[in-house]
Specification:
The structure is a homohexamer. The first copy, chain A, is an alpha/beta fold. Helices cover about 45% and strands about 15% of the residues of chain A. Chain A has 11 helices and 9 strands. Chain A has helices at about 20-30, 45-55, 70-75, 90-95, 110-120, 160-165, 175-185, 190-205, 220-230, 235-245, 250-265; strands at about 35, 60, 75-80, 80-85, 100-105, 125-130, 135, 140-145, 165-170. The first copy, chain A, starts with 18 loop residues before the first helix and ends with a helix.
């Protein structure tokens, strides 16, 4: 699954630490980059932001259990009796000197590693076995991957032989100051009311006793802020955009509502 | 599997809480919506009702173990020697600005998430990799999904990265007043006799000791009411439409018949 | 796998309870019907009987592990260079207003449920996604399914969301009087000698200590009666048609022969 | 995998009990027959013998894990650009009124049961869904199946709904008298020396302490007799045709050689 | 995977016991032969030797997990728009009256047994279902199979119904005298230095305490002898051709080097 | 996945022991070679170096779970209505007399062994069953394979019958002197600062208490040196290129940073 972005307006992104500098260094040195971190903390947005800033198109591939090397490289398709080669998103990125972003890369099938290895060491080559073609990645091609260490299980792990090919950095939710700015800007809600939302988010993320699979994402805060800005009462807006999306367990939902009462009470 | 509904007569639906307002807000803000709740409590009917009210066609997809991204997006089919692209229900919904309803979405294969992610964040884009096409969802496109938290198992769970993209709300059986109205209207049975059926349903749903996988649905009450309205004795009608559909266990069937005797005795 | 029956001679069937009335009511109300019960107690015969009585063709599908939605709905077949759509048995039944009987429905693959859902609620629609066709089931179409609760295991269970769409009734072996009539009529054996066979069957079915997977079916009694009517000694006929078909275990076979000695001794 | 036998010379077969009469009765009554018993006791030979005696061609199908309904019924094959239907062995047997013998039937895939059900009850019909054809089995068609109860495991069992459609009988190794005759006739070894081999076989089959998966088959005795008749010393002949084929375990091989020493010592 | 050998120079083979006589008897009697034994003890070489001696071509098939009946028999291949039947190695062997050698036969898929059964009993027939052809094996066709009892696991075992169709014999490493001859001849190393290698091999094979999956093969001795003959120091040659190929465990490697020190010290 | 290298500039490689001599001997004797060792210690680089030195092209195949024999040998591809045979990398290597390098060979599917066996014993033959072609490997063809004993699990092990066909040697990280040279040369960092990095690597590799899946590779040291040479502060460079790529565990990351503090403090 790919997303091609030819629009070079730089999307809004509020840096957390020095991730922008790291990205630029990796891009300039031709090194692949691995972003680790939880859901909805802005990894995709960050990559889109950097791509635009560097003036490169971006191909985003959301990886999944059945994603194979052919999905990345391309395949022959039969069209009206004629067989035609159709490039996959990785091949297109290499050809155009674009950024290819493999979101949640450990979800992909194992043959993907085969494609990535010669592309992520000093060879920087993409081999299209089916056509016999062999592409030398241009200097402005960059491979970025992400994964969420929180999901890790025994069956799905990145092999060290793949992992040790990437520069890596860990992402986390932005600090309160930054998150308030982001949520207010995206939702149109005033800063004062946004502060409460971000304060609530801090409480939820800090409460390990709640046993949530993940803390509330910035995206859900924006949803909540949007509903409130649209006139929905705060408790309902938070029920639909925070409590229900985070858990199905009645106990956990009660605990979340208690937390809301504390923050808003 | 899709169901296209071009008839805009608004199907009968009796609201339970403020779910209609939530649906309209989500539709207007372009946010995806997740409906949680048990079998046969009216989720499908609700979505059809809202689609008609908003004047949008609806594509319903009942998800299952083998449902893949291609089933939603489309595929090339060979017809009389010519290969032709055939849109899947999701693609059709995006093109027409319709509502796409993914019933029991966690049953679907994991590659479906790949399609949904860029469609459910701020990008709102559907990528048709096979044709190279990329669709920007129009404002009147909406994605609705449902699932039943009661079925959840370890193997099939919605990943937070998918789940935190939806506004969510929980459905439950309607209150007695509403359910009497619905059952009487659908079956043609008089309100007096319908009351007993709904009273029985309340007892069954409340008895956790019975160890039923799910409580009796409104649909089964309508079946029972139909049979009674058609002249079948109450005990037989309830045997065929409540006792037998709910359980194969002789013990549980006896307990259900005892409950019936209490209500009707 | 389908069986089409255009001959409308009503096959012989001896009713056990009010199952004929239930079938007719379900047919008239357009409701699907689920028959539960052990092997060889006459479910298939019953459905064939009712189909003939109601003047409808019948399509019987014996479900199995690999039966998919496409097996029921149809598929494109390549014939001499031309691709041709071929209706599956369910589609044929919907088009002709016939009865479609899904024998042992829980054996089928899970995508079958997707086809059945819109066909078994108030929509009564069959969607043929591959051709883009959508069929409204005519009033004289009826869906009947069967399964054997005795086989149930953890992996194969009917989901409540499917199960609560059917009227259900439990079949069992006919009472002695009826079974004697059936066996005598089918085998040509005199009633006197048939009585002993049915008496034996009662003993076998009642003996839970034997640990048989299922009791002896009416079909096996007919086999035994046929062999005896053809001149085979009773002990040999019962060995080949009752003892050996019921078990491979020497202990169980001895116990069955003891039971035979008691009845015939 | 099928074996067609148009040669009607009756192959040599030495009856053990009244299995010939049972086979003829089943053939005349149109009932399917199930043969149970260990490897190499002559089931295949028996069926070939009866087929020749009844003047019917025989199609033998050795069932296995991947044998599907299509392997039995037939499939479309692409030959030089033209698609041609090719009957499978079961279809050929039904068309010609032949005997179809499914060897080790429980090994086959589960969709095979679907084909066999309407063919083994009073309908006696074979449905070829792919071509839309429906064959009524002629009176001289007969279905015979075999399986070995000794192999049974939890995963592979005949469902009662299939099993209770067959007349069944158990085969075992022939008695000593008969086996001597068979082995001598097949191998050309004199009766005197054959007696020792059959005596040895009796000892091996009786020794449950040896923990062999199966006793020595008549076939292996014929191999041994052939080697001896060809001039090989008895101990070597028995090593190659009895000891080594029965076990890889050094302990068991020693025990078998001890047994040989007892019989021949 | 097949190896066709039309060169009839008899490859060098040093008999261990009377395996040559057994092979010839089996060939003359038309009986299949099963060779059991460890890796690299010369089974393949033996079969090639006998094939050349008997003047028959040989088709060697190295069996594996995915080897199916079609791989042995043949299949239709699409070549330039025309479908062409291509014989598999077994079919070619039957047609030409050659020897077909199935190396490590239990690794193959289970449908292979179906092909072998009618070919390995008195029928000696190969059925090519796809083409409708049926071949009677000529007298100079012979089937040879091998397997290694040491690998046996619960999932992969030869069924007695297959196994009891073969004459069987166990292979082992040659005696020291013979092995010295073989290694010296193949490597060009002088007999004196070869003796040490074979002495070392004897020690390694006898040491059950080392917990090696298999003892050192004659092939590895030839490798070692080749390296030594080419001028490499003995300790390095043995490190690369014996120690490293036998084990990855540091402990075991140390033990092997100690053993080498004892023999060469 | 193959990498073809027609450029014969010998890539820089710093020998560790006598691996170059072993490679040349194996090449000259026509023996296959197995390289064992951890990730990123230079195996691929070594093979490329030797290939260039010997003037042979190299085909590198990164093996994975789904890599099958056909991926190595080739397959028919449909191109514009015409079916065309396309050689796989192994076939190309045999035809051209090149070096074929199977990286992480035990990851490949089991049917690969079938291809390798006749190519790695005295036959040295590659059989292309699909085309009926049979290639005799020329003297300048060589097969090299690698695997990492550290990954070994019960399901994926090299069978002795495959393993005992290769000369084997173990690779490890280069000694400090050599590694400093390599890292400095590749990154452009001065030797003084490189020494610290290699010292750090020694500490990390020696600390078994850290429970890392693998020690830090030379490649990651080069990454770190590159970043430092580019002006990034040492602690950040090590965070992105050593700490984060080695572990997701906060405890382990802290331990690694402590180690860095010790070396740089």
């Amino acid at each position: 699954m790919t997303v091609q972005n030819h629009v070079f307006d730089v999307p809004y992104y509020q840096p957390i630490a020095d991730e922008c500098a790291l990205f630029e260094t990796a891009f300039n040195k031709g090194l692949p980059l691995l972003l680790k971190g939880p859901t909805g903390c802005g990894k995709t947005r960050f990559v889109e932001h950097m791509a635009a800033k560097l003036g490169r198109p971006i191909y985003t591939v959301a990886c999944h259990d059945d994603l194979s090397a052919a999905d990345l490289i391309g395949r022959y398709l039969l069209k009206g009796g004629v067989t035609e080669w159709v490039d996959g998103p990785l091949t297109r990125a290499v050809r155009e000197g674009a950024i290819c972003y493999l979101d949640e890369v450990i979800e992909a099938r194992k043959d993907v590693a085969v494609v990535l290895h010669p592309l992520t060491d000093n060879r920087r080559r993409l081999i299209i076995e089916r056509t016999g073609e062999e592409l030398q990645a241009p200097p402005n091609f960059m491979l970025v991957a992400s994964y969420n260490p929180g999901y890790q299980n025994v069956l799905k792990q990145m092999k060290p032989s793949t992992r040790q090919r990437f520069l890596s950095t860990t992402f986390d939710f932005p600090d309160a100051e930054t998150e308030i700015q982001v949520v207010a800007k995206e939702s149109g809600l005033d800063v004062e009311r946004t502060k409460n939302l971000v304060r609530l988010a801090g409480h939820i993320r800090g409460l390990s006793s709640l046993d949530l699979e993940e803390g509330v994402s910035t995206r859900l805060l924006i949803y909540a802020a949007s509903l409130i800005a649209g006139g929905m009462p705060v408790d309902k807006a938070l029920q639909y955009s925070v409590v229900e999306p985070l858990s199905d367990e009645p106990d956990v939902q009660v605990a979340l509502r208690d937390l809301i009462a504390v923050v808003y009470g």
